[in-house]
Specification:
Blueprint: H1 2-19, H2 21-31, H3 39-58, H4 62-86
Helix pairs in contact: 1-4, 2-4, 3-4
């Protein structure tokens, strides 16, 4: 039972961490610039999220799949906004 509670707490916090880059997206849109953002850094993070989602799916572990999918989707959105602002 304690393990399930910990899995829920970790997954919930992971989702919160996954949506945190929305703050960066908001700032980039407000300033109309993404020059202070490292695209290489976020590319590495995105690849890591893909790996964690794949591992979570393979191990049938929703506590890994859910937060990493949220992180991946928000990260892709951030990456797309950053690229658009650099054009």
């Amino acid at each position: 039972m304690a393990q399930a509670g910990l899995a829920f707490a970790a997954s919930a916090w992971g989702v919160l961490m996954g949506v945190a880059p929305v703050l960066q997206i908001r700032r980039m849109l407000r300033e109309r610039s993404s020059r202070d953002l490292s695209l290489g850094y976020f590319a590495i993070l995105l690849f890591g999220f893909v790996l964690w989602v794949a591992y979570g799916v393979a191990s049938r572990n929703l506590a890994l799949v859910v937060p990493n999918t949220v992180s991946l989707l928000v990260g892709v959105a951030l990456f797309c906004v950053a690229l658009r602002l650099r054009q």
